Amino acid sequence: MPVKQPSLQRRDYVAMGSFRYALRKFLRFSNDLLATKASLTPEQYEALLALKSFASGAGMLVGQLSDRLQVRHHTTVALTNKLVARGLITKKRSATDRRQVYVQLTAAGQALLEAVAAVHRKAIRIHSTELIAVLRQLQK
Fold first, then answer.
1. Residue 104 carries which DSSP code?
2. Helix (H) or strand (E) holding 62
3. Distance of CA 58 to the CA centre of its chain
4. Is the Cβ–Cβ distance between 58 and 72 less than 8 Å?
5. Is 52 exposed, middle or buried (0-12, 13-18, 19+ CB in 10 A)?
6. How many CB atoms lie within 10 A of CB 15?
7. How far apart are CA 20 and CA 41, in angstroms?
8. Considering only CA atoms, which of 42, 46, 49 is closest in space to residue 24?
9. CB 133 within 8 A of CB 11
10. Residue 43's closest CA among 10, 22, 7, 71?
11. pLDDT of the chain along its 140 residues, tens only?
12. For residues 127 and 28, is the Cβ–Cβ distance under 8 A?
């Protein structure tokens, strides 16, 4: 017999709605910033962030980047091709397994990421109090 889930209270709905609202405000700010100041899509920015944060010395495999971005392999290939065309990343096949392609940030990609990430970090610091308060409500 399935276990009955406890019913949600009004405060639960308010907290969930507030959480989504806070996220949407931040994402709207982020999307506007990326489009106007960097000509990047959110997915491109996330790819640059993933490469900066999780790539090894050789870079990151396209499949690993797909996992980080939670998109299909072919979507990552198209995304990385656009970033290569802009000179923000490089792609290089593995010497031992030609099926594997490593992706790395270029100096231009690094510089653009630093500029955009600094603005994001400032915005996160400003809005973190609101997000943390809502998350605490959801933990109760």
1. E
2. helix 62-69
3. 21
4. no
5. middle
6. 20
7. 21
8. 42
9. no
10. 71
11. 677 777 888 988 999 999 999 999 999 999 999 999 999 999 999 999 999 999 888 899 999 999 999 999 999 999 999 999 999 999 999 888 888 999 999 999 999 999 999 999 999 999 899 899 999 988 88
12. no
φ and ψ at residue 43, rounded to 5 degrees: -65, -40
Q: Cβ neighbours of residue 33 under 8 Å, at least 6 residues apart?
A: 116, 119, 120
Find residue 91's DSSP bridge partners: 103
Residue 29, both tokens: 């700010």
Residue with token string 């072919």: 74
Give the chain's end-to-end CA distance (angstroms, integer). 27
Q: Which of 114, 109, 35, 97 lies closest to 61, judged by CA?
A: 97
